[in-house]
Design goal:
- The chain contains 14 helices and 18 strands.
- The protein is α+β, with helices and mostly antiparallel strands.
- The strands form four sheets. The chain has a seven-stranded antiparallel β-sheet, with helices on both faces. A five-stranded antiparallel β-sheet has the order 5-6-10-8-9, with helices on both faces.
- A hairpin with a 4-residue loop joins strand 17 and strand 18.
- The radius of gyration is 23 Å and the shape is globular.
Length: 455
């Protein structure tokens, strides 16, 4: 490691055990973390020097952002050097006419949202980990979140990237252009690549018109078929910003953790948080939709938020699920199918899970409007973490067989990383996987960029 000190200062290199364990992992909890060092570059040029050093010394590099991933994509297990971007956290430029923001990869997602608000603009990629995730990590995983229905994924809001490839080249991709029909769009190739092709160092973020206030509704329903009918009712009559579903079991965990009362005077099997932009027509339209849903029986109960405080409370029932489950060391899967296939898919999946885990608690929630479901299997108190993970991994085969049956994705949001790479063929064809491997070789011929992830 002495060569690193030729281009990095002493405060940019950490090798103590606490730092290695902290920076060498993400939110995945069941890998043995074993990096050799953590480095903190401050410029693109320093990242380039790191890559060239890694090529020369045959050292693997693992990129690290906010470390909020759930697939092991930022885990260092084999003496790799972890490249943390937390010191590359500057907003570099703002173009009012273009409505773009240029920033370094380590800028926190929420900081971009707040900067946009100060400019009377809006960055719409939103999720529970926004306060700690970094824009570079969002790009690497093509982060989605709760507003995908209206605003799409991270890739829809990235108009330029500066990257360092695995061969040490610095590339500026797309340069903030709206229109650019000059062959392959390599920017899009790096979005969602999980740091396996190179390292994102700067990001040009496209901002949007700032919406008016949002109206949030909390609804209750008897079963998933009725939830889908409610979604159809909304989608045909109003532009949704978000449509999220969670089970009664998930709500109970949040209510206990928050110490807040039940939102309704009785319990229901399923709950929905839906959000629309507040306009002159939206309030009347919402009431009409709720009346129609209650008349047909799809909606069993419902409330429309009357204040920002109440809107935040409604959203807390959904956004705080993961935090409320953390004490149970859950085994997580995020999967997706076409929205139209959700009811049949869930029926098959419930059969698999109930027969595989007859005595274990399984918590469901998800972005039902885009077909993305999150499954959380809670670890029994009398079972070790190692034995628990082994049992869950046995059932993964059945779960992903079911995903393949419905032509779905084994990972809707969290990436492939370490946890799902052996199941990649359930979503990608052999031809696709081979092309992906060739792309990896082109950009990272020495296999130093996050090796062992995806494949």
């Amino acid at each position: 490691m002495t060569e690193l000190k030729s281009f990095l200062k002493s405060d940019q290199i950490l090798t103590d055990q606490a730092s290695l364990q902290n920076y060498g992992k993400d939110w995945t909890t069941y890998f043995d973390i074993n990096p050799s060092a953590i480095v903190f570059p401050r410029t693109t040029e320093e990242v380039q020097k790191l890559v060239l050093w890694a090529i020369e010394t045959k050292t693997a590099l693992v990129p690290s952002g906010g470390r909020t991933g759930l697939s092991g994509g930022a885990c260092a297990l084999n003496q790799e050097v972890v490249v943390s971007f937390e010191k590359m956290n500057r907003i570099l430029n703002f173009e009012d006419l273009d409505q773009t923001l240029l920033c370094e990869a380590g800028v926190i997602t929420e900081a971009i949202q707040k900067y946009a608000e100060d400019k009377n603009l809006y960055y719409p990629i939103d999720f529970a980990a926004k306060g700690s995730s970094q824009i570079g990590g969002n790009v690497a995983t093509n982060a989605g979140g709760i507003k995908v229905l209206r605003y799409g994924l991270t890739r829809n809001w990235i108009s330029g990237l500066k990257i360092v490839t695995g061969s040490g080249e610095i590339l500026e991709l797309n340069k903030g252009l709206i229109k650019n029909a000059t062959g392959y769009d390599l920017r899009q190739l790096f979005i969602g690549s999980e740091g396996t092709l190179g390292f994102v160092t700067e990001v040009t973020v496209q901002l949007a018109r700032r919406p008016q206030d949002f109206e949030v509704v909390l609804l209750a329903s008897e079963n998933l078929d009725e939830v889908m009918k409610i979604f159809t009712l909304f989608r045909k009559q109003i532009e949704l910003t978000a449509f999220e579903m969670f089970s009664r079991a998930a709500l109970e965990k949040v209510l206990h953790a928050q110490k807040t009362p039940d939102p309704f005077d009785q319990s229901y099997p399923f709950y929905i948080v839906a959000e629309v932009e507040k306009t002159a027509e939206s309030s009347d339209r919402l009431m009409q939709i709720l009346e129609q849903g209650m008349e047909t029986g799809s909606i069993q109960n419902g409330n429309v938020s009357q204040s920002k405080t109440q809107s935040s409370l409604f959203w807390s029932y959904r956004e705080n699920i993961s935090e409320s489950l953390s004490a149970f060391s859950p085994y997580k899967n995020d999967i997706a199918v076409q929205v139209s296939k959700v009811p049949d898919f869930v029926k098959d999946l419930q059969t698999i899970l109930s027969s595989s885990y007859p005595k274990w608690e399984v918590i469901w929630f998800g972005h039902i409007g885009d077909g993305n479901l999150h499954i959380n299997i809670l670890r029994p108190k009398d079972l070790s973490k190692e034995d628990f993970v082994k049992e869950c991994q046995k059932v993964d085969q059945l779960v992903f067989d079911c995903v393949a049956k419905f032509s779905g994705s084994i990972s809707a949001e969290h990436g492939v990383g370490l946890t799902k790479k052996k199941f990649l063929s359930k979503t990608k064809s052999p031809a696709e996987i081979e092309i992906m491997k060739q792309i990896k070789k082109t950009f990272d011929p020495h296999n130093i960029c996050n090796p062992g992830k995806i494949f």
